Amino acid sequence: MNANFNPDKQHTLKSAVSVSGTGLHTGIKVDMILNPANAGFGIQFQRIDLAGQPIIKADCDLVTDTSRGTTLEDKGAKVSTVEHILAALVGMGVDNCLIEINGPEIPIIDGSSAPFVEIIEEAGVAEQEATKLWYTIDSNITYYDDEKRVEMVAMPAIEYQITTLIDFNSPVLGTQHAGLKHLKDFKSEIAPCRTFCFLHELEMLLENNLIKGGDINNAIVIVDKPVSEAEMERLGKAFGRKKMEVKSGGYLNSGSQMSPPAISYWISLAIWRLSAHPLKRISLPTARGILQM
Fold first, then answer.
1. What is the CATH number of the domain that holds 91?
2. 88, exposed or middle or buried, with CB in 10 Å at 0-12, 13-18, 19+?
3. Which residue in 66, 111, 159, 165 has the fewest CB atoms around it within 10 Å?
4. Which of 97, 61, 58 is nearest to 80 (CA)?
């Protein structure tokens, strides 16, 4: 976003732009094209590999799974791991976009929104004539999930702001918090934040033949227990690496490319209309009343 960006107008892309990559969980290589769209179109996915090329709207009513990423599904057609591309579009001020994809999952790239921000900048963002519709609230709205121990509070504010805090009871991560005071800061402050998981989760995922497209370069692995040489060798084989090591910050590294320290990336998931991982079952009409549609 530049200084001339008008937040009260709708925006789309100036031109189509494409990216290719592998899905984190399916391991399927896909091609994805972001296309300009008319005012009022919103953000929609089109599965061009399926019969009839069905459309799936980026609508929180269509969220069907948030266990290892956010999945949208409509009339049997689904697209998964949509959180990073949606965060990038909303974070860059894009309201209307048709996303064509020839597979079931968005490519993970490096595990952050940054690569998608780059291609959005490559395409350019165009202001449209239509005004943007904003929803506001006049009192606090609170949601708490006792099982997952997750709390969300939406409060009246003049500007769109998010503050998030995580605590996994991990001596490596500790308690972390992040905030977004202005949406214009999304590119520098939030987009580079990467997906992470704990080593004990990684082993379970590998054993269940998941994260087929996972690689040490598209996620940060937090080492939360002692690791034997045999385990390191097994992980090295799983990721196709000759050498694996635990860095002083407590994260797994291939010995060839340094991974940045772990940082909360949940804020990028919350950017797009409250359908982030553990909070799928918040009242959806309430969610629509909290954030801009």
1. 3.30.230.20
2. buried
3. 159
4. 58
SS3 63: strand
In a domain, 268, yes or no: no
Q: Give 114-183 as a DSSP string.
A: HHHHHHHHHH-EEEEEEEPP----SS-EEEEETTTTEEEEE---SS--EEEEEE-S-TTT-EEEEEES-G
| pLDDT 10s digits, 218-277 | 666 666 656 566 655 655 544 444 444 444 444 444 333 333 333 333 333 333 333 233
Shared domain for 222 and 112, answered yes or no, is no
Tokens representing residue 269 in the block: 């998931």
- Contact, 25 vs 211, CB < 8 A? yes
Counting Cβ atoms within 10 Å, is residue 282 exposed (0-12), middle (13-18) or buried (19+)? Answer: buried
Least confident of 45-54, 159-168, 242-251, 263-272: 263-272
Q: Which domain covers residue 79, as residue numbers? A: 9-133
